Amino acid sequence: MRPEPLLHDTGHFLPRDLSDQQVSRQVFGPLQQFPRRVAWRWLFGIAITLLLMYLASATVLLANGVGMWGNNQPVHWGYGILNYIWWLGIGHAGTFISALLLLIERPWRHTLNRLAELMTLMAVICAALYPILHLGRPWLFYWILPYPNEMGLWPQFKSPTAWDMFAILSYLTVSLLFLLVGAIPDFATARDRAQGALRQTLYGLMALGWRGSQQHWALWRSTTRVLAMLAIPLVFAVSSGYSFLLTMGPQSGWHSTLFPPYFVAGAVFSGFALVALLAIGVRWLLHIEALITLRHLDMLGRLLLATGWLTAYGYLMDLFMPFYSGDTHEIEVLLTRLSGPHAWSFWLAIVCNVGVLQALWWRSVRQRPGVLAAVALAVLVGMWAERFMLVIPPQTRDFLVSTWGGYTPTIWDWTLFIGSFGVFLLPYSLFLRYVPMVSAFEVKQALHQERGDD
Amino acid sequence: MSASSLDFAAWREQLAGLKGSAYWRGLEALAATPEAQALIEAEFPGAAPLLDRRHFLQLMAASLAMAGLVACGKTPEQAVPAIRQATQLTPGVASWYATAIPFCGIAQPVLGKTLAGRPIKLEGNPQHPMSGGACDAFTQAAILQLYDPDRSQAPRFKGRETSWDEVRGALARQRLTLDTTRGKGLHIVCGASSSPTLGRQLEALRRRWPEAQLYHAEPFAETQALRVSERVFGQPLNARRYLENAEVLVCLEDDPLGSGPRQTLLQRGWAERRRQAAQGQGAALSFVAESIPTLTGAAATRRLAIAPSRLPDLVLALSRALGDNVADQPRLSARQLDWVDEAASALKAHPGRGLICVSKQAAEDVQAQVMRLNQRLGAHGQTLDWQTPTLLGYERGQFWASLEQLSQQLAGGNVSQLWLLDCNPLHTSAPDLGLEGLLQKVPFRLHAGLYYDESAAHCHWHLPLNHALDGWSDTRAADGSACIVQPLIEPMYSTRTLHQIIELLLTSADSDALDQVRITWSHVPQSQWRQALADGWIEASAPAVDVPEAATWVLNLIDIDGLEAVVRPDPCVWDGRFANLGWLQELPKPISTLTWSNVVGLSPRLAEQVGVRNGDGVEVALPGQLLRGAAWIEPGQADQVIALYTGYGRSHAGRVGNGLGYAVRPIQSSSVSASVRSSGEHHTLAVTQTHHQLPDYEAPPIRVVQREAPQLPAQQIPASLYSSVVDSGPQWGMVIDLDLCTGCNACVTACQAENNIAVVGAEQVANGRNMHWLRIDHYYQGSLDAPRSRFQPLPCMHCEQAPCETGCPVNATVHSRDGLNQMVYNRCIGTRTCASYCPYKVRRFNWLDWSADAAPSIQAQRNPEVTVRARGVMEKCTYCVQRISAARIEDKQQGFDFDTTKVVTACQQTCPSQAIRFGDIADPASAVSHARKDPRHYRLLEALGTRPRTTYLARIEEGESSDEA
Question: DSSP state, A310?
Fold first, then answer.
């Protein structure tokens, strides 16, 4: 008998007596027989409606130009950049949960990592579409890529916009790899359990010929660890990257060294909020309350609270710095954030991200799925308001008073944003049906380790 | 190829029938017409009938070649270019022709640039003393009017298009009647004109039909001033003001620097005075008393906001202060008297160097007394002299009649024929004349004008006139010199000049337009005539007239209790004659920066009383007119005054100008009693600048120095790790002297014309998407009720350390070796990072496709040397890089070193104040280098370390004096 591991304790999270068969049934069962078909159909219907809305808005946009949006002079960057930052921020939590917690060996992540990784993938795609649609001439977006061409033209590597392109692309690649590699053993199980040649073939392709040999496991283990090590710095690089989009310009209210850490905290914070929401949803939809337990939700609540305070520290510093600098224009921009025409965004962010968040100090809140979902939703709204507050009001108060202006998003700004949830939800609802939403083999492994039966 | 075989005019007539979106794509579309067949036969004999493969290909090639002709025009053969050049037209090489654009009958001498036979840009005629190479916004926009697709293109009878043959027939019948009645019943209404040819023709007309009556129909005309001068001096005389000599300028409700036919001249004089004062040669003081804020008021040393009804009191007080023996007591407040005392003592301190200007609409006694005061001050011969009127219809004792008299004649049923020549009285006359109704009784009504306008719609016949740039005429400039209006292109549509139309009436002959002008100048030999065409004028300035001593006038004080309305011409569309020009509609009105509409101006206090904010609807009642418009709060306006602007509310201006703003007709006096109330509506107004307060920063955008010590503290420019971009060859830079800028907008329109800048419309301007590369920022300083106005033209700064260049991910904005911040449209993908990073916000984005669906004629106007920008790309001021390249290439071809002084940007060229200097800052001898060493020199937002190449000279203020409410 080994000594009880201090850090590897899963006992609080999963029922000790959960058998392998039960885990497999819970995870792979829905691939054959979905437990809540009606609810799923509703979800799918909503997703497809939103996606159509997105496609229609994008078509109108592409046909007429970005003038369909509310952007103007001086607010050259409106919802295109704002929603890009918001979606990309959300994407970070998935990688954080999967990669960082994997490296520091937190076994409770095993029930959450798959759904978080899928969320990351879709959020990054939602985000990545935005800068393209935001372009004046979107059909030429590939000019940002460094590809050899007869004109001998390369991207301008000093531009943070170019950095963004690299950041998104590498992030997308790494998260996709991480997701696919991480799920190989589960795809193999799905292949083995699948009925029908088509499913067998498709799952078989995803499983890459996985047979579960010792060599396979050894390779798999080192690959996932390497990918995780690649992914962690990317979390920081990408959110710092898009903060550079703002900070590299001379604009007061943007030009701040605080932004990179501030944005990382905000990104992970908003991501955890969506992970919490998804975990609650998936848990109910797939009927896997035994795998995603209240303790998991409790943990997510704590993380949310912790990253929320990091973000709040960012707010505090962002408020303090202009006054500390004494720069008249910095103070003016700050006061516009606090009391200008878009002051609602600042106060909404404070209320949601700082105020409502404090409910999570109570375990009863954290462990009640409905209430936690409400708080998470508030955080998502609050983070969107925060992105708004960071991106828009400084542009309306530029250096020369003569160029001060306002900003009102148009109906097309809204339809595209609301529609982007369709881009997220439609694939996600299909994942629910066709992808093992929990990393079954890792859960089993953790259970075995916990019980000490090798 | 003779003009008759290539009958473009006939095709134009055919095309004139096409309306709206039925644009035609080229001459192929017309190939079926007999004319086109004839052309093809003439050009390619034998091609048309035999269509074998070989001939078919030839024909195709021909039709393609002719399709290209759409892009070309034809310069009249008799036109003489201003600059000697090869006789043959070389594609891509510009020709320059001197001509003149009449505005309110007064010539604006210009040089017109044509490329491939198409006029594309107007510049002031540097040889003409009235222009000196500068011109105003209206003149800059004349080129757009030439190409306006809504210009009237064919004669009409009762609204339906007809042919000139029909017109000739109808006029022949009328002539028979007129011959029998000796012209009785013929009443001719004319817009202001100074054309010697028109004068000669009208003289002939009156000799033949002595009973014919002539009328003036020009709104805001100088009739009143001329009538007064006739009473004071015994003959009608026109004042010529020399602001360059006026060390003390006192303006009473007059706006010499604002829009108007003499703006260029007066502004040049004003700037010259300030320039000399800045060098320590004499003073440059101005005292302005006015009811509504104007450019002259903005430039004033001391400004006084006062109701127009107090003008007689003000003149009375001024007369007393200047020692004139007048009995009455002025009813003025202590502050108003202070202003008078200060103005009077300044005038006395500068004997012979003072000038008092008064509104030409002011009461007779006020104007007469001002004439006397000027004489007393010794202004004559120094700051003022007198000339016989240049405009037609103001001969001594024989002024043409006014529209009131026409109204009486119409009411009396004495009018059997009414001719409205180059005027639109149904839009511009006072409504109490009731012309609309009275007109209907006249059996024969004829209108000749550029547009099928409101007056045309009320006439049986409408005859389209040529534009000044496509028809021969002559006109006189403000100094009385005569200019030949030389067309730059053959008539674009089936139009005639006014001279041809009068000849048609008199003789039924379809005369040649040039012949009519040449007859007037038949005493000039042909060689001299050709020289005159090349120079742009044929007769030098008129001599000054000696005037007798004027007597003191008794001033009648005006009693208006309560509110009074002032009606002014709109600074951008005047009386509405420019309403269909997108450039001028979108030109921000000075001070308010409003576009696309007129407003009802109220002082902050009055707005508070009425309970309205900017854009709220108000109803204004003045005698005979009730109008509803959008309120606009004008800080600095007199509290008793409601400011109304003409030129809007048009129904027949064209597709651009119809249905904008509210209609108000000019009034007969300087103000009338009126009332205003809120109507509860709200209007969206398109302003280009929503905030106007001059910030109280350490480094405000507009810096001011005192006259006694015109120096700014040295600027601290943050150090940079990067080397300055100065490399080799010329380094371009621009210095704008804020002491000389009046905010007149001429540069903005010049930039628009030169650089194919798109017009986006009211809705997009309201969205903050106006496209001007050069904008004029306006700031208020001081109290809400009596603020000072400051202007700052802002083109691209061409920063040496440009933030925009860092931002662009695709290298679409880069720095050139000669210091230009360049925009590569082809490479731009529209991330807008550059604009987000630009601290001056001078970059403009093509949010939608602004340019593609322009009418073909508007496309023909575009400068072929400047790319027309597509949707989704960024654009901005280039320092007119096409002009830089053209000058460099020319020097290189001729084997010279690049003479950088030859490069003149469009804004610099047209600025009447010459406030803009441009050139090579690496050359220590250049004007721009000198300006950069001026102690008033500063960089905008220097603390950002952008090292802008466009820099400013601070404005000079006089002492500590402030404005008075």
Answer: H
The structural architecture, per CATH, of the domain B78-209+408-522 is 3-Layer(aba) Sandwich (3.40)
| Torsion of the alpha carbons at B10, B14, B15 and B17, rounded to the nearest 10 | 140
**Beta-carbon separation of A66 and B830 below 8 A:** yes
B720 touches chain A (CB under 8 A): no
Cis peptide before B81 (omega within 30 of 0): no
- Of the listed ranges B21-30, B529-538, B635-644, the least confidently predicted one is B21-30
| DSSP 8-state class, residue B716 | -
What stretches of B556-634 adopt beta strand conformation (E)? Answer: 564-568, 594-595, 600-602, 616-622, 625-633
- Taken as a whole, chain A contains a residue count of 454
Instruction: Round to whole Å and give the CA distance between A288 and A284.
Output: 7
Q: B 792-851 residues with CB below 8 A of A?
A: 792, 794, 803, 806-811, 827-833, 835-837, 839-841, 843-849
Checking phi first, is residue B810 left (phi over 0); if not, alpha (psi -120 to 50) or beta? Answer: alpha
Domain B238-387 has CATH 3.40.228.10: yes
Residue B764 contacts A, CB cutoff 8 Å: yes
pLDDT (tens digit, 9 = 90+) per residue, B263-302? Answer: 999 999 999 999 999 988 989 999 999 999 999 999 999 9
Contact B691 A404 (CB under 8 A): yes
Query: In Å, how far is A298's CA from the nearest CA of chain B?
Result: 42
Phi, psi at B915, each rounded to 5°: -80, -15
Q: Could you give the CA distance from residue B119 to residue B72 in angstroms, rounded to a whole number?
A: 10
Alpha-carbon distance of B680 to B624, in angstroms, equals 22
Q: What is the CA radius of gyration of chain A?
A: 23
Q: Is B762 exposed, middle or buried (0-12, 13-18, 19+ CB in 10 A)?
A: middle
Tell me: the pLDDT tens digits for A406-431? 999 999 999 999 999 999 999 999 99
Looking only at the bridges linking them, the beta strands covering B955-957 and B417-421 are: unpaired
Long-range contacts for A210-213 (Cβ within 8 Å, ≥24 apart)? Answer: A210/A184, A210/A185, A212/A185, A212/A188
Q: Does domain A20-451 have CATH number 3.40.50.1450?
A: no
- For the B564-687 domain, the top CATH level (class) is mainly beta
Search chain B and give the residue with CA nearest A395: B836
Span B633-648, average pLDDT: 93
Where helices occur in B234-280 by DSSP H, the ranges are 263-278
Q: Where are the domains of chain B?
A: 8-69, 78-209+408-522, 238-387, 564-687, 716-957
Using a CB–CB cutoff of 8 Å, tell me whether B615 touches chain A: no
The three-point CA angle B344-B348-B349 to 5° equals: 115
A-B Cβ pairs (cutoff 8 Å, strict)? 165
User: How far apart are alpha carbons B282 and B245 in whole angstroms?
Assistant: 9
- When scoring B691, B703, B773, B833 by the number of chain A Cβ atoms within 10 A, the one with the most, hence best to mutate, is B833
Report the alpha-carbon distance of residue A48 to residue A41 in Å, rounded.
Answer: 10
Q: How far apart are CA B259 and CA B272, in angstroms?
A: 19
pLDDT at B960: 55
Q: Which of B794, B803, B811 sits opposite A250 (nearest CB)?
A: B803
Full-model pTM: 0.89
Which residues in A lie closer than 8 A to residue B694 (C-beta atoms)? 401
Dihedral angle sign, alpha carbons of residues B657, B660, B663, B669: negative
Inter-chain CB proximity A161 and B808 less than 8 Å: yes
Distance from CA of B810 to the nearest CA of A (A): 5
Domain boundaries along the sequence of chain A: 20-451
B716-957 has CATH 3.40.50.2020 classification: no
Whole-number Å distance between alpha carbons of B701 and B840? 10
